[in-house]
Amino acid sequence: MARRPPPRLTALLLLALSSGATGGVAQSRPEPFQTVDLRLAVLADVSNGALHRYWSPGAAYGAGVALPFYAGTVETGAQYARPSPRRDGVPRFRSLFLYAGWGAEQKLSGRWQAGGGVRVGVLAMRFDGDTISVPSRRESEMGLALRAALRWMPFDRWFTEAAVTYQSILTRPRTEQVFLSLGIARRFDTPTWLRDFLD
Amino acid sequence: MAARLPGLTALFLGLVQAGAALAAQEAVGTGPAARVITGETLRRAGALHLGDALLLAGGWHVSTVDGFAWDASPLGGSPFVPARWTVLVDGRRMELDLFGSSGLHRLAVPLERVDSVVLTELPRLEAGRLATHGIVHIHTAAPGAGASAGGWVTTGSEIGDPGPFGFTPRGGSNVDRIGHALSASLGYGAARWHAEGSFTESETIPTDPAIAERYAAALGDRPRLELSGYAGRVGLRLGGGEHQLAARHSDVDRAFALAPLGAELPVRERFTRVGVLGRRPAGSERELSYEVSYSANRTRSRGDGATPGLDWDARTTEARLELSQHSSRLETVGVSLRRVAVHSPGDPEDPNLGRAAVYAGFTLDRARRAAGAVTVSAGDGEIGWAALLRRGWALPARSGLHAIVAFERTPRAEDNSVWAWSDRGLPLPDESGAGTNIVSVPRASERLTADIVWEVSPATAVTLTARLLFRRERNLSLESRRLGLGPNGSFVGPTTVVHGQGGELGGLSAEAGARPVGPLTLRAALWYRRVLSGDAVYREAWRVVPRAGGRLTAEYVPVPGLELWLAGGYRGESRWDAYAGVEAESGGGSAAVVPDAFTLDVAVQKWLWDDRLRAHLGVRNLTGTSLRYHPAGATFEPTAVLQVEARFR
Questions:
Q1: Residues of B with Cβ-Cβ distance to A54 under 8 angstroms
Q2: What band does B312 get if pLDDT is binned at 50, 70 and 90?
């Protein structure tokens, strides 16, 4: 039977796409790859899904870069977590979500900016435990995430960001998580060699 | 189904709608006679192997059990064993036929070196043969001026494993990886010569539940399907002509399924080919071309002796000489000589087959609207011949009509199936004790083909094509099997080989192509085929081929270096009578009916560093359709594909 997309997913998707549609028009935007934003964030999983019946997700840590693209922005990064078991018999594991994404930004007023985007990536997992055979200790699955963010830019180069991210790893059953995050970022001019490489 | 990936489905719905809207504008198309899949398209589609070119073309019937080895036949071709489609690499005919199947994987052509794959469905004189069963011609890119190097790595994983939930009471195992493929090449081009060498390697992990037990029984606890291949060529311009020495070799470790042996057997396939091909002017209007080649097609058992052996060594030597006359009505005349020597353990005398052929291509009028070709061959005590007539008419409104009629009588010397070799005295099928019944006696097969093609270009860069086809076949040797469950998930049952089978097939196809504004290319194709009349086994053999299919592809390049790909496909239902007993025994497993499937593939890639690097991410079967090609084969779940390519000049 067909399953309807979760309401939160639809809302996030609409926000991401609508901000992407207007972001390039409402404000003058930098040239593709002209700048690079280096971002660090701490994330807290506030959802309660299939994963949470067996594991406590704990805090996650993210790092990534974002650059202006021909439309919107492109980004790549990694998000690390170390869920711990809530029940006997399931292993502790480490996970690393490596992603690439696209997003768009919309200036609100003053030093405030809203943004949204979509990420596609691979969640690499490494399971601990002597009873697990070596080939079974590693697994990777594709995942995607939708993200909405509110950004405060008090200085030219530095800014902070609060975001909500819906992440779905395409396991069976689906590993669905919603993260709230706080982060800090610094904007740099992209070195010429890197712009030449990317463009 | 769509519900399995609601987020992605919603996201890409917009792309589909955008593609449909653009299709209504304008552009170019492909005709059914020759479909060209460029290396650029293979890259955008994230091709994993050469068989993907057949999938992308549309109209070709493709089938696989494990996703590693692919069988194929064009619309109007023959899906029967032996496979009679012709495979060419840079003008050289490849003797890939191994027990009647022609697996492109044995070519080990690095995908990064493919310039284009041209798929021809209409009968045509090519490399000294009149091919009526379709041609796959792979053109590789010649090295550019100076030194060049390139490499390509692909990996991926099926989506939908349990991940961490595999350690919970829910269970399941994390196994469905698709392995990897990589290739590398070096080349150098100068004014009068060029040289190139390449290496390719791949590994496929057959862990799909439908095949895992059988493949583990054949290949051990850590089953792998592995390919490694090498190729090299040296080209020289000399005396106004061009001459090229080319060699290729591949080793394939895999599970080989052969009907009389009952189950997949562990084998190493080795394919080697060395050849010289050249041409030079012979006067102002004439050109002389030649080819001498040596091919070895071998299999060696890798089992522990408990399974039947499959040791086989077939060596083919062929020479061909051809004269082309550009301004003459007799355009081409040629002669070819071929010798096949086979060795198999237990065979008291190694049989040799010799074949000699002459061929000619001609035009019937000065305007070259009507043309034809004829070949006559002798071998194995039989005479074979084939003839082709083609006529074209220019019609109003930028349209044209083509009619092509061909007849082919194929001598038994061309039959490389295991049954033909059994007739020649090799003991292979009897060793397994699986049971074989032979009905009637083999004779030279006959095939009549008729095609009508209408093409129109209603607007700039828009092409529409429609094709009607008819096939009449006689004296085919077809297999009929009734299988039951065997040990380790295998299937056992006697095989009946029925000689003298025949019937009539009809079909039609329609295609549209568009290259509107520069960055968008759209192609759509629909096809249908149906047995019109025929013997019972002929009808049964055709039921395994879906009657209908369709394909829509869109390539979009919004800015140079950023490329988007979308492909939708429909594959009709197929019925496999051989597995009806298996389905009943297993309570529905290995169902005799392989259901129809709609699939959607998407991909995005970015060229970096002035087109020296390429990063590709794609998802196959995004909507999660249960996609299978064979009742005993793997199900192809949604799969993420990652590809990286580097090339330097």
A1: 164-165, 168
A2: confident
Of B6, B14, B159, the CB nearest to A3: B6
Best CA proximity match to A162, nearest among A138, A129, A185, A141: A185
Higher-confidence residue of B302 and B350: namely B302
Burial group, residue B8, by CB count within 10 angstroms (0-12, 13-18, 19+):
buried
Which residues from A are below 8 Å from B165, CB to CB?
50, 54, 171-173, 175
Cα B552 to Cα B564: distance, rounded to the nearest angstrom: 14
User: Pick the residue with more confidence: B589 or B114?
Assistant: B114
Q: Could you give the angle at the alpha carbon of B555 between the alpha carbons of B553 and B560, nearest 5°?
A: 175
For B159, the closest of A1, A13, A142 (CB atoms) is A142
Contact indicator for B182, B202 with CB cutoff of 8 Å: yes
Residue A197 has pLDDT above 70, yes or no: yes
In this predicted model, what pLDDT tens digit does every residue of A121-176 receive, in sequence order?
989 999 998 888 776 788 888 899 999 999 999 988 999 999 999 999 989 899 99
Distance from CA of B15 to the nearest CA of A (A): 13
**pLDDT of A47 strictly over 60:** yes
Whether the CA torsion B287, B363, B90, B557 is positive or negative: it is positive
Q: Which amino acid type is present at position A62? A: G
Task: Inspect the interface and report whether the beta carbons of B165 and A50 lie closer than 8 Å.
Answer: yes
* Contact criterion met (CB below 8 Å) for A103 and A115: yes
ipTM: 0.83
Reduce the DSSP state of residue B428 to 3 states and report it: helix
Segment 13-32 of chain B within 8 Å of chain A by CB: 14
The angle that helices A7-26 and B6-23 make with each other, rounded to 10 degrees, is 50
For the stretch B533-557, pLDDT in tens is 999 999 999 999 999 999 999 999 9
Taking the CA atoms of B411, B416, B418 and B424 in sequence, report the sign of the dihedral they define. positive
State which residue of chain B sits closest to A127, comparing Cα positions: B164
Task: Compute the distance between CA of residue B305 and CA of residue B220 in angstroms, rounded to an integer.
Answer: 14
pLDDT at B420: 80
DSSP-assigned states of every residue in A109-153: STTEEEEEEEEEEEEEEEE--TTS-GGGSEEEEEEEEEEEEEEE-
B483 Cα distance to chain centroid: 27
DSSP string spanning B218-254? HH-SS--EEEEEEEEEEEEEETTEEEEEEEEEEEEEE
Q: Give B224's contacts in chain A (Cβ within 8 Å).
A: none
Bridge partners for B446 per DSSP: B409, B474
Give the pLDDT confidence score for residue B260 in this predicted structure: 66
For the CA atoms of B515, B517, B519, B525, the dihedral, rounded to the nearest 10 degrees, stands at -20
Minimum-distance CB partner of A141 among B159, B558, B609: B159
Q: pTM score, two decimals?
A: 0.87
Are residues A141 and B163, on separate chains, in Cβ contact within 8 Å?
Answer: yes
Chain A residues lying within 8 Å of B622, measured CB to CB = none
Residue B45: DSSP 8-state: T
Q: What is the pLDDT of residues B117-173, one digit of tens each?
A: 999 989 999 999 999 999 999 999 989 899 999 999 998 888 878 889 989 988 777
B225 and B66 in contact (C-beta within 8 Å)? yes
Output the average pLDDT for chain B: 86
For residues B526 and B531, give the distance between their C-alpha atoms in angstroms, rounded to a whole number.
Answer: 18
Judge contact between B319 and B351, C-beta under 8 A. no
B8 touches chain A (CB under 8 A): yes
Say whether B157 and A89 touch across the interface (CB within 8 A).
no
CB B62 within 8 A of CB B72: yes
Asked if the C-beta of B648 comes within 8 angstroms of chain A's C-beta atoms, the answer is no
Size of interface A-B (CB pairs under 8 A): 99
pLDDT tops 90 at residue B419: no
Q: What is the mean pLDDT of residues B263-288?
A: 92
Run of H or E residues at B336: strand B330-343
